[in-house]
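Take just one protein record:
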Amino acid sequence: MSRLNLAPCAAYAVPWKLAGLPKESAVLLALSGGADSRVLLDLLHASAKADGFRLLLAHVNHGIRGDEAARDEIFCRELAAKYGYELCVLHADVPALAKVSGRGLEEEARSVRYSYFEALMRERQIPILVTAHHADDHLETLLFRLSRGAGLAGLCGIAPSRAFAGGYLVRPLLHCTRREILTYCEEKGLEYVTDSTNADPTYARNRIRAEILPVLESLFEGVGPRAVAMSEELCEDEAYLTRVAEEALMEAHSPQGLQVDRLRAQDPSVLRRVLRLWFFRVGEGELSRAHVNALCALLFRESESGTRVALPNGCFAVREFGCLRIERSAEADAAPFCLAFAEGETLLPASGIRILVKKCKNGRKIHNLSTQSGIIATAQFAIIKKDCYWRSRREGDRILQGGMHKQLRRLYNAAKVPARWRDALPLLCDGEGIVWAPFVGCRDGISPLGEGFAVTVLLPDCETKEREGF
């Protein structure tokens, strides 16, 4: 006799217990009509009567299998009527949506399903979504991820419970095997439908299910449930390492970025997680193993000058002045410019930098100020020649200081000007070359005293009250 026949069955977990919520918490069941969700409906029906929770059913017609999909929908409607539950149905044209998004059919279908389930949960105030994933699904997922390359997080497989839509997504059948589920249907006389695409060998998961799992089951009895138990232990390990990484990320944080020396002091297993958390927390997405390896190589490189690594979503990781930070391509590739010197405010559209010029009578010394919202550079000059203009930096730029023509690149390094702003900062020039460079200073022979102009350069986020010298 299948252990699923036990009441309550040993392998079936009650949803509210998996979610850690009160037993009267409402439940949404994702119902496909297949054997897995058919068994789950039968078990949930018994639990709902015993514990008194509200049960809502949801079915998605993906518009992929034509008459077969219509048959599945009709079957689910009949099931809902038989058990006395409301069934919510979504009709979607997944092939058309996949063409627009560029995703595969399976990925697009999954996105459509879970978006619909999330909307229902929020609309009906249901805190628990239940799906019928089982031990064979879990093992299939592990083999798929292992074949493509997975770390510890990937080997955690399908979680029995996770946060979703302000509530939880739970899998009460995760410890049940496919064979036990089919036996339950046979012994209970439960009818179900079969998705013909599950037998399509063009899908990698289907070949794993049809060709590899049967061999493993013939060699090792109970391989599915044991894989689930293994993943549960790995989940505990992953949770601990993630907590350590979160603490390390906080310790490495500074206004300029992550402190390289603190990152280099971490164990490799922690460092990899710190980098992934960092990129995810700043809202840029997830890092692949190749990206993490490239970042680690960047951190441990002897020289940091001008080094950067390309990351997803048009971002770069830049290491400079002992810190690692992210810059977006729009900041890294500022457009060249050449503008007339004029009173008032001039905006550099590509970078958002503002140049403020105002006549003044009392000269002051050049002043540079760094703030949390940006960097301000201010200078005052005696009367400036009429042929002055603003331009962006060029390769090989030099400025005459102390009787020597010094490389602007080296002066920027000495002043610790972030690399992302060097091509964007405006240079005040005349026919003889650079007159003034923010954070570097004036050319020899330019007096900051007497009647002339006060000039201020503000980076995009500087507030008006910080406009020093204007």
Summary: The chain is about 40% helix and 25% strand. The CA atoms of residues 69 and 170 lie 25 Å apart.
